[in-house]
Amino acid sequence: MKPVLVDTSVWRYFFAGRATARPLATLLEEEGIVFVHPLVVGELVLGGLSSDQERLLQRLPTVEWVPYEEVLSFIKRRRLARRGIGWVDAEIITSGLTSGAEVWSFDRAVVAVAGELGAAFDANVGTS
Fold first, then answer.
1. In CATH, what number is assigned to the domain containing residue 29?
2. 60, 10 in Cβ contact below 8 A?
3. pLDDT tens per residue, the chain (128 residues)?
4. Distance (Å, rounded) from C-alpha 79 to C-alpha 81?
5. CA separation for the pair 38, 19 (Å, rounded)
6. How far apart are CA 105 and CA 118, in angstroms?
7. Total structural domains in the chain?
8. 0.85 cut: is pTM over it?
9. Residue 97 belongs to what domain range?
């Protein structure tokens, strides 16, 4: 199974106990499958995390930051302007592709762009 870079939206749903994010629990049982991005961790910290949640995130592998120039080039090359994603989303998608991970998000624009690039994680398929 390919690694999965989990976006902020999925973590929020998971920590809130929402059913749509339950497959994350199964993925977390497998060592080295779930990746985090420093920007996602930052967003989650700003939203408030329990110490258990923070410890969970700290033990997961982190994808590499993609340099600013590379993300900018990626956005231009793939014509991602005005597609509904933000800079953090572009960084996460680029980092996912660079690290060979699929991107799991509940943000429709992120899912659409990652899907077009062959990097969207489908929880209904990915955990079976």
1. 3.40.50.1010
2. no
3. 899 999 999 999 999 999 999 999 999 999 999 999 999 999 999 999 999 999 999 999 999 899 999 999 999 999 999 999 999 999 999 999 999 999 999 999 999 999 999 999 999 875 43
4. 6
5. 25
6. 14
7. 1
8. yes
9. 4-126
